[in-house]
């Protein structure tokens, strides 16, 4: 049987596409794979009211104000992205579920958007954490097959934070925790937050370390050119936080603690060789305390990475090599990123069927205790 050039090219292209999706090259249909999106944001009306109050009263108090709160929630221009973000952050029912259905997303793991409860005084922050987690648990109860959730808490008051962490897991059935990076310009390696890290380890639930605008100590250079947000400042800030956790010895003290980093690891995979190299040098000359392991070993043991808002195949390849396939999870970063684009990216990635299953659902099911 003769095959003309057009038929040959069509068959070859189909075979390559099938291979890139991990499907058989003979075109047989592939069994559907569960898609769990692991960094999907929401807000509550109570939080929005509190954010706007502090933003209007103290507009220069935090770089979070111009990079997020005011632009999204303070009368955004109708039809703008900010207006859509506001509407979709507040929706945990019809529009969100319709978007998931259209894109082929089976479940979202919901977490409160930046800056969460971390810019308020301790009493208010603790109260808002409770109401926010109740709001989240109610949404999951309405749609238990479609949503799981990460609890927020107020690091400003570690005692009450631990109490809320325990309630969130044991009573509300939530799947982990969200910390929107720095609190009062402090990071989780600070000794006062030790009870929080101890509780997360004891509860066997990860802390998703999500970016926010750079803390006041590093905010200056980010105020120009809109650099404080997702274009640069968010990743630099969260990556700095994670490096502090590694180099401080936190993971020597809490070896079973799990931290999740979004956005392909906030640049740490790129830096890992140099972190290993310089950690040894600084330990030898006395500039830092020696660690039990290399930074790269902590990265693989204690840190998981999601793809949220980062659809670059070459970066995904680096992340898999650096973190290990068992520590990589898929995410969209809804509503800030497009669900269909995120699905197309992961469906088109050159992965084996086993790798695809790990990234799309198995790792999330294991780490976040999802049935």
TrEMBL record:
Source organism superkingdom: Bacteria
GO BP annotation list: secondary metabolic process
GO cellular-component term (any): cytosol
The keyword Transport belongs to this UniProt entry's keyword annotation: no
Limits of the Amidohydrolase-related domain: 95-369
Stored InterPro entries: ACMSD, Amidohydro-rel, Metal_Hydrolase, TAT_signal, TAT_signal_bac_arc
Cited PANTHER family: 2-AMINO-3-CARBOXYLMUCONATE-6-SEMIALDEHYDE DECARBOXYLASE, AMIDOHYDROLASE-RELATED DOMAIN-CONTAINING PROTEIN-RELATED
NCBIfam families assigned to the protein according to its UniProt record, in alphabetical order: TAT_signal_seq (TIGR01409)
The protein's name: Amidohydrolase
């Amino acid at each position: 049987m003769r095959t003309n050039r057009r038929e040959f090219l069509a068959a070859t292209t189909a075979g390559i596409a099938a291979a890139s999706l991990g499907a058989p090259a003979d075109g047989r249909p592939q069994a559907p794979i569960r898609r769990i999106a692991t960094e999907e944001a929401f807000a509550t009306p109570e939080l929005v009211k509190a954010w706007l109050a502090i933003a209007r009263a103290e507009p220069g108090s935090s770089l979070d104000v111009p990079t997020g709160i005011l632009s999204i929630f303070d009368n955004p221009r109708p039809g703008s992205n900010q207006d859509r973000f506001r509407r979709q952050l507040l929706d945990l029912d019809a529009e969100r579920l319709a978007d998931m259905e259209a894109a082929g997303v089976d479940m979202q793991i919901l977490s409160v958007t930046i800056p969460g409860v971390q810019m308020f005084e301790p009493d208010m922050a603790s109260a808002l954490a409770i109401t926010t987690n109740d709001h989240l648990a109610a949404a999951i109860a309405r749609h238990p097959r479609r949503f799981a959730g990460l609890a927020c808490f107020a690091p400003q008051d570690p005692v009450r934070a631990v109490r809320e962490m325990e309630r969130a897991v044991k009573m509300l059935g939530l799947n982990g925790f969200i910390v929107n990076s720095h609190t009062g310009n402090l990071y989780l390696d600070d000794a006062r937050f030790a009870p929080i890290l101890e509780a997360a380890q004891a509860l066997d639930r990860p802390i998703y370390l999500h970016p926010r605008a750079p803390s006041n100590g590093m905010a200056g250079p980010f105020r120009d050119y809109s650099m404080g947000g997702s274009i640069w400042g968010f990743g630099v800030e969260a990556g700095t936080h994670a490096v502090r956790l590694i180099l401080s010895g936190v993971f020597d003290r809490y070896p079973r603690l799990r931290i999740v980093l979004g956005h392909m690891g906030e640049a740490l995979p790129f830096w890992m060789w140099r972190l290993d190299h310089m950690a040894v040098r600084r330990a030898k000359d006395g500039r830092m305390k020696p660690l039990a392991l290399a930074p790269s070993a902590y990265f693989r043991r204690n840190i998981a990475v999601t793809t949220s808002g980062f659809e670059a195949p070459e970066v995904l390849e680096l992340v898999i090599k650096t973190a290990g396939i068992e520590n990589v999870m898929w995410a969209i970063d809804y509503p800030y990123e497009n669900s269909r684009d995120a699905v197309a990216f992961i469906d088109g990635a050159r992965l084996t069927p086993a790798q695809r299953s790990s990234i799309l659902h198995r790792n999330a099911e294991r780490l976040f205790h999802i049935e």
